[in-house]
Each structure stands twice: as C-alpha cells, then as structure tokens.
Design brief:
Elements lengths: L5 H10 L6 H12 L4 E2 H10 L7 H13 L3 E5 L5 E5 H7 L2 E6 L5 E8 L17 E4 L6 H6 L1
Helix pairs in contact: 1-2, 2-4
The protein binds zinc ion (2 copies).
The site of one zinc ion has 8 residues, from loops.
C-alpha cells in the first residue's frame, strides 16, 4: 500500500493533470485514510470533523467528479444501491483478494485469505478487473454471528 502523504497526494493530482486544490487534497486524504469505500454522506461527515471544517455538498460533488474523471478515485454500488467512493490505488491493492458485502448494513470486509484467481479468457478478450464478492450477513448482522461473540 502506498504512503498517502499530502505531497504524495498532490503529486498524484499533478500526474493525473488535475489542478491541486485544497478541497481535492482533503477529499483524497479522507479517502486514503478510510478502511473501506465511503458513501457521499460518510465523506461529508468525516470532512466536517476534520481540520478546516466541512465542504459544501456542491463542492464535494464537483471534487468527486473530477477525481473519478481523472481516474484517481472510483465508485462502486454497494449492496443497498448506494454509491461508495474509494481511491483507485487502494482498489488495486484490494483486487488481489475477495470481499464480503453485508446485505443488511452495507459493510465491506476484506477476505484476504481468499485469493482472486487468474482469469482464463478466450483469445482476443482482455481482462481489466476480476472481483470476487461474497454477499450475505456480517458478524454484526447475522443471528449466528451475534451468538458467537
Ligand atoms: Zn452487516
Ligand atoms: Zn480488501
């Protein structure tokens, strides 16, 4: 996993030909510290708690748009149909293993012991992404999990 210092994040913006602005750096820093992909609302909350206070909704939308457009960030739909945002570099690090998506709380857990297989494709096909996703109930949401703790 790369180290996400402010200098590193600014260099990433420059490398993606995106102007380095304070809101962009703050959103990148927030995403780089997140253990899993964040929803718009979660990002808003974390930014509001951070140094410099919250970003208004429109600014946050614009920042996320520019980060998605330049490829630094990606978004996925979670089990509840809500968009979650994450850094592409973090996504790449997570691409090597499977993930568990909880269908009740929407939480995502790394299953590092489940390694993604190498895609075997017909001639002419190009794999861009292989994802293994297990859906169900996490330990906090399943009745079995609650009893086991
Ligand atoms: Zn859950
Ligand atoms: Zn992971």
């Amino acid at each position: 996993m790369p180290e996400f210092t402010p200098d590193f994040l600014a260099a990433q913006l420059r490398a993606a030909s995106v102007k380095v602005t304070r809101p962009r750096l703050r959103v990148l820093a927030c995403l780089s510290r997140a253990a899993s992909a964040l929803t718009h609302g979660e990002l808003e909350e974390r930014l509001a708690e951070g140094e410099g206070g919250g970003l208004d909704r429109v600014t946050l939308y614009r920042v996320l748009d520019s980060l998605l457009e330049c490829g630094l960030a990606e978004r996925t739909l979670d089990a509840r149909g809500v968009y979650r945002f994450l850094l592409s570099s973090i996504r790449a690090a997570h691409a090597a293993h499977a993930h568990f998506h909880c269908q009740r709380c929407g939480g995502i857990t790394c299953l590092e012991q489940m390694v993604a297989p190498v895609a075997t494709l017909p001639t002419g096909f190009v794999a861009r992404q292989v994802e293994i996703e297990v859906r169900g109930l996490c330990v906090n949401c399943s009745p079995v999990g609650g009893a086991a703790r």
